[in-house]
């Protein structure tokens, strides 16, 4: 059993996908299951942290001892996270936020008369980048989802979003990333990186929290 080494730490975690509705019955989304973020929330709770988990649509049971805020769209996720941001001492952003949403959400179900259709999308706000602009003494941890060698891109995100750590994972590898029980990640800092072995999301969550603790100066 781990000690309560994060006792009292106020941790904000995001998990799962967002849904960007096109009309009342259709949406754009991605295959995030929420497992990675839920694992972080549960591991932090077990180590004594106070945890708020902002979760997009997932089938996972809400963890006991964690305040869960359910959202659907990126704009709702942004609002829920920014509402809690002043309270938080550290943030782990494992959600797969949709980069775009429909420019217009149709009020009625769209007819399927035409053979081709064009959908106009607009960019969603980058929530983590917004938090990074008002970082204060918080520890900010992001994830970077890449489909090919992505160390350079992950580090670019780390710098642009003003993060302490970005957790790089590859979503097109068998048995890791989206939906799976395991993940294989690289911890990327400004000046170095550390590849972790393939392991359960819970084990990786605990390693990420070890880093949060160290960056916080011991808690
Ligand atoms: O949920 P699982 O099935 O367990 O899968 C886990 C996961 C693969 C979804 C997770 O490990 C992961 O990689 N999450 C982040 C996915 C992602 O959106 O990566 P990105 O490279 O597009 O974004 C970089 C960072 O900015 C992320 O922390 C993201 O949450 C954040 N972001 C992105 C876009 C946006 N508009 N606002 C954001 O805050």
**Percent range for helical residues?**
25-40%
Tell me the domain tally.
1
- Model regions low in confidence, pLDDT < 50 over at least 5 residues: none
CATH class: Alpha Beta
- Biggest sheet: strands, sense, closure? 8 strands, mixed
Task: Provide the CATH topology.
Answer: Rossmann fold
- Overall pLDDT confidence: 95
Percent in strands: 25-35%
- Encode the helix/strand succession as letters: EEEHEEHEEEHEHEEEEEH
CATH level-four homologous superfamily name: CoaB-like
Total strand segments: 14
Shape: globular
Widest sheet, order of strands:
5-4-1-6-9-10-12-13
Specify the CATH architecture.
3-Layer(aba) Sandwich
Question: What are the bound molecules?
Answer: ligand PMT
Alpha-carbon Rg, integer: 18 Å
- Termini Cα gap: 19 Å
Q: Which structural category do the helix and sheet elements fall into?
A: alpha/beta
What is the number of helical segments per DSSP (H or I, 4+ residues)? 5
Catalytic activity: (R)-4'-phosphopantothenate + L-cysteine + CTP = N-[(R)-4-phosphopantothenoyl]-L-cysteine + CMP + diphosphate + H(+); N-[(R)-4-phosphopantothenoyl]-L-cysteine + H(+) = (R)-4'-phosphopantetheine + CO2
Family: In the N-terminal section; belongs to the HFCD (homo-oligomeric flavin containing Cys decarboxylase) superfamily.
GO molecular function: FMN binding; metal ion binding; phosphopantothenate--cysteine ligase activity; phosphopantothenoylcysteine decarboxylase activity
Protein name: Coenzyme A biosynthesis bifunctional protein CoaBC
């Amino acid at each position: 059993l781990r000690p309560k080494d994060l006792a009292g730490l106020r941790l904000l975690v995001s998990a799962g996908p967002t849904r960007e509705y096109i009309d009342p019955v259709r949406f754009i989304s991605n295959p995030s299951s929420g497992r990675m973020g839920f694992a972080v929330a549960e591991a932090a709770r077990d180590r004594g942290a106070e945890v708020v988990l902002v979760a997009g649509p997932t089938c996972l049971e809400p963890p006991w001892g964690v305040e869960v805020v359910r959202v659907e769209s990126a704009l709702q996720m942004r609002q829920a996270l920014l509402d809690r941001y002043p309270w938080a001492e550290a943030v782990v952003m494992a959600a797969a936020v949709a980069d775009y949403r429909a420019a217009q959400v149709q009020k009625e179900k769209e007819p399927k008369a035409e053979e081709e259709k064009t959908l106009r999308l607009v960019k969603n706000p980058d929530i983590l980048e917004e938090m990074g602009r008002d970082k204060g003494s918080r520890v900010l941890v992001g994830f970077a989802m890449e489909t090919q060698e992505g160390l350079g891109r992950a580090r670019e995100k780390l710098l642009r979003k003003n993060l302490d750590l970005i957790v790089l994972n590859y979503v097109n590898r068998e048995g890791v990333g989206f939906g799976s029980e395991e993940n294989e990640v690289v911890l990327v800092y400004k000046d170095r990186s550390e590849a972790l072995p393939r392991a359960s999301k819970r084990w990786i969550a605990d390693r990420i929290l070890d880093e949060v603790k160290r960056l916080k100066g011991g808690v």
